[in-house]
Amino acid sequence: MISKASGDFDPTVRRLVDQLNAFPGVVTFSSCGGHREPLTPSQRPLGEFEVNFNVYPLLGGWRSLELIASALVESEDRNSLKLTLWSVGGGTSVNFELEGRRHADPDALATVLSQMRELFDDEVVDESD
Q1: Domain ranges in the chain?
Q2: What is the predicted pLDDT for the residue at 54?
Q3: Options 3.40.630, 3.30.70, 3.30.950, 3.10.620; which CATH number does 11-124 get?
Q4: Long-range contacts of range 1-10, CB-CB < 8 Å, 24 or more positions apart?
Q5: Could you tell me if 99 and 49 are in contact, meaning their C-beta atoms sit under 8 angstroms apart?
Q6: What does the angle CA 44 – CA 48 – CA 53 come to, to the nearest 5 degrees?
Q7: Would you call 7 helix, strand, or coil by DSSP?
Q8: Would you state the pLDDT for residue 110?
Q9: What is the pTM of this model?
Q10: CB atoms < 10 A from the CB of 113, how many?
Q11: Cα 42 to Cα 46: distance, rounded to the nearest angstrom
């Protein structure tokens, strides 16, 4: 069983983190909502954000990833968003980094993700009919 991330998140990316974690087989594990004066290389400057997450293919993660990618394409900020595969987690998961640059709006992306997740929920209902 996987556990969904909880704890303190930058308010800038809170809705985005919540929406990603709502997808089956997706678990976020780090994020940054941007800092006025970044103090470390892992901190993003203001106007940028990142969320790192695992996708667990056997727990619905591949379909979730497809819908997440579709949300990026549908987003008004699509030219400022980037999804990168960066690690394979020992055969059970795949790790991704979602980046927003040039003042991409994480709340607007969260809204599109919510709409995409409704498609997933509708598919599950259809399969049970």
Answers
A1: 11-124
A2: 93
A3: 3.30.70
A4: 2/27, 2/54, 2/56, 2/59, 3/27, 4/28, 5/29, 9/33, 10/34, 10/49
A5: yes
A6: 75
A7: coil
A8: 95
A9: 0.83
A10: 26
A11: 13
